[in-house]
């Protein structure tokens, strides 16, 4: 019986030492951070074509996702990275899934469409968004759009009111192009390069005259884009947009925050849009020294406003507000106009004392900060 016995090697499973466990934890956190920073890229099939979509964070559906759409001449990275990678924004980012949509053929390195390609209209692009929500299994979103992206998300929200819980619209223009606009655009196309036309759309005259670093970097990026022809198609369709025909009876069913720089090309359009919306659910943030793209030039101020907007929807307790937000309460409220000062400072002070955000004010809140 002894000869039939075989030698069996028994290996003891030893638990990780404390240092090893910490190292494994750090490695996992690093991997999660890299995934959060870089995002997961997806090609989402819709009934009107394919959309390039980048998802950041966990795919939890307990809360609405934050869904973004960029402006003409930008893609999701160049339009939103400065805002959503801003340090103070991380309190929001870690609690929500971010879904960044690139317009058809607008993502960096996208192949150029063939000559004669019929680019989708603004309405058609808006009709592609429900497929994105279905792809990621989200029933509702908080939309953040800039320029053309703000128009597209507005169309989507009007057609799908139950799918949008809140809307942040930067540089919104709800009007169709008039004959004067059309004539000016024709003249500009003769006297200016396409890149300069886009820069005039994105930036204020002051920024263009000063030729700021931001203007220079975007001029170089746009002029060297391999998909420049696609950008031009998007631009033409945006200029062919229809009037949204908003009024107090035909408007958004969700809370809305309008944002515009005080010298932005679309300041007047944003003011007009504000006059058409329900004042009990609309706030209007006019930002000083923000230029044409406040999400790039003033991410701190826009982050703070966005936090209060999210908190007002009940998704962030006031205890989560940062020291920066609390310390800025007095300085911010003191810089507003008299009417805006009373309503805004009341919101800020109550929001930073541990209670929930107060209900939307009874009138539209217009502030300059």
UniProtKB/TrEMBL annotation:
GO biological process: cell differentiation; nervous system development; Wnt signaling pathway
Residue spans of biased composition, Low complexity class: 331-340
Subcellular location: Cytoplasm
Biological classification of the source: Eukaryota, Metazoa, Chordata, Craniata, Vertebrata
Purpose of the protein: Contributes to the regulation of the Wnt signaling pathway. Down-regulates CTNNB1-mediated transcriptional activation of target genes. May be involved in neuron differentiation.
InterPro entries assigned: AB_hydrolase_fold, NDRG
Pfam family, one: Ndr
GO cellular component: cytoplasm
Domain of life: Eukaryota
UniProt name for this protein: Protein NDRG2
Primary location: cytoplasm
Keywords: Cytoplasm, Developmental protein, Differentiation, Neurogenesis, Wnt signaling pathway
Residue numbers spanned by region Disordered: 331-369
Family: Belongs to the NDRG family.
């Amino acid at each position: 019986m002894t000869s039939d016995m075989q030698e069996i090697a028994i290996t003891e499973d030893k638990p990780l030492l404390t240092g090893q466990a910490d190292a494994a934890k750090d490695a996992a956190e690093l991997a999660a951070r890299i995934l959060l920073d870089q995002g997961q890229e997806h090609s989402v099939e819709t009934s009107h074509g394919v959309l390039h979509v980048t998802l950041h964070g966990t795919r939890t559906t307990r809360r609405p996702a934050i869904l973004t759409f960029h402006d003409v001449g930008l893609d999701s990275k160049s339009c939103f990275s400065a805002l959503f990678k801003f340090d103070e924004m991380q309190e929001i980012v870690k609690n929500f899934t971010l879904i960044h949509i690139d317009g058809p053929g607008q993502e960096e390195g996208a192949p150029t469409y063939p000559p004669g390609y019929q680019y989708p209209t603004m309405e058609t692009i808006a009709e592609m968004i429900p497929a994105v929500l279905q792809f990621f299994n989200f029933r509702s979103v908080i939309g953040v759009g800039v320029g053309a992206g703000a128009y597209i998300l507005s169309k989507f929200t009007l057609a799908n009111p139950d799918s949008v819980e809140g809307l942040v619209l930067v540089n919104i223009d709800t009007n169709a192009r008039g004959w004067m606009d059309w004539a000016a655009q024709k003249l500009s196309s003769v006297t200016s390069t396409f890149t300069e036309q886009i820069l005039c759309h994105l930036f204020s005259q002051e920024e263009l005259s000063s030729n700021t670093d931001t203007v220079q970097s975007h001029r170089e990026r746009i002029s060297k884009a391999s998909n420049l022809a696609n950008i031009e198609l998007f631009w033409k369709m945006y200029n062919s947009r229809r009037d949204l025909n908003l009024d107090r009876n035909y408007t958004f069913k969700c809370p809305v925050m309008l944002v515009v720089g005080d010298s932005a090309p679309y300041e007047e359009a944003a003011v007009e849009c504000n006059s058409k919306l329900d004042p009990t659910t609309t706030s209007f943030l006019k930002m000083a020294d923000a230029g044409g793209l406040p999400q790039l030039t003033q991410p701190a101020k826009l982050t703070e406003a966005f936090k209060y907007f999210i908190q007002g929807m009940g998704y962030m307790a006031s205890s989560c507000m940062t020291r920066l937000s609390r310390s800025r309460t007095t300085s911010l409220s003191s810089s507003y106009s008299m009417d805006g000062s009373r309503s805004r400072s009341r919101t800020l002070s109550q929001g930073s004392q541990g209670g929930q955000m107060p209900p939307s004010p009874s009138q539209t809140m217009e502030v300059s900060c």
